[in-house]
Specification:
single chain, 163 residues, 2 domains, two-stranded antiparallel ribbon, 8 helices, 2 strands, extended
């Protein structure tokens, strides 16, 4: 087992798109497995319960997908994420004409757009919540009638006039 410091360093390399050697990849996967098991123990979950809870993550981009280890056949989250289990009526997907993964994607984007609109999140954080790049987030704001600028007209006039 590698140290948490080395695990975090390897994880950071992967998140930035840097290649790992086969040995480093094996170390990182073992570290993810250990962290996932510790989290499941802390939460009092069995492997089956944890697998069921992570089904909702199917709508996340590949860099945020839970790790599936073949040896243990368990689904584990990446260490810097939190999984949220949301119970919804089955009919909501039919009413919105969306499958669950697409619904989750749209819900994350809508929440991020709203939180950005009311000033709770920056563009970068909102894009992270939505699970998209910053440019994709900015492009999606028009769908929600949200301005990419966090200034209202009065603030812009004050800024320009120096008042």
């Amino acid at each position: 087992m590698i140290s948490d410091e080395l695990g975090c360093q390897l994880h950071d390399l992967v998140r930035r798109g840097q290649p790992l050697t086969a040995d480093e990849q094996a170390q990182l996967e073992a570290w993810y497995t250990e962290k996932g098991r510790a989290e499941m123990t802390q939460l009092g979950l069995t492997v089956a319960e944890a697998q069921a809870a992570y089904v909702v993550s199917a709508g996340q981009p590949p860099s945020r997908q839970p790790l599936v280890t073949e040896a243990a056949n368990t689904t584990l989250p990446l260490p810097d994420t939190v999984q949220v289990l949301l119970e919804l009526p089955r009919g909501i997907f039919a009413a919105l004409r969306q499958d669950p993964p697409n619904f989750i994607r749209q819900m994350r984007l809508a929440a991020a757009a709203k939180w950005y609109e009311i000033g709770l999140l920056s563009q970068a954080k909102a894009a992270e919540v939505a699970g998209v790049s910053r440019s994709e987030f900015l492009a999606s704001l028009a769908h929600f009638n949200v301005s990419p600028f966090q200034y209202d007209a009065d603030e812009i006039v004050k800024e320009v006039t120096g008042a």
